[in-house]
Structure formats: C-alpha cells, structure tokens
Amino acid sequence: xxxxxxxxxxxxxxxxxxxxxxxxxxxxxxxxxxxxxxxxxxxxxxxxxxxxxxxxxxxxxxxxxxxxxxxxxxxxxxx
Length: 79
Prior knowledge:
Layout: H1 4-27, H2 33-52, H3 57-77
Helix pairs in contact: 1-2, 2-3
C-alpha cells in the first residue's frame, strides 16, 4: 500500500482529472460521453482513495452525493 504522501499525490491527480472533465463539460454544448466517462472514472478514484485513507463513510457519502448531483446536472442540461 502506498504511503500517505503518495496517496495524497494520487488524490490530487484524480481531483485535477475531475476538474478537467468538469471544465470541458461546462464548455461543451452537449455532454460528450467520453467526458462523462472521464468524470465518472475520476469520481471513482477519489471515492476509493478517500475510503482507503480511512475517511469516515458518512463524509465519503457526502462527497459522493455532491459529485453525483453535479453529474446529474450535466445530464439534465443536455436533455
């Protein structure tokens, strides 16, 4: 298992990927399926890393719900 510093670097990299996907989704007139997959992948990595770092499940669920609401907003915008 990677040490704490490496896990932090991985989380920052995942967060950067998430922000990149969100930025492109905001700029796009329609949601690109590839961008939505990138968003989903980054979210998955972040949630996994939070859980492996021992973050309480209640806090992880709060973050997960916020990311899910944002994704839903992109889907609703494209309808």
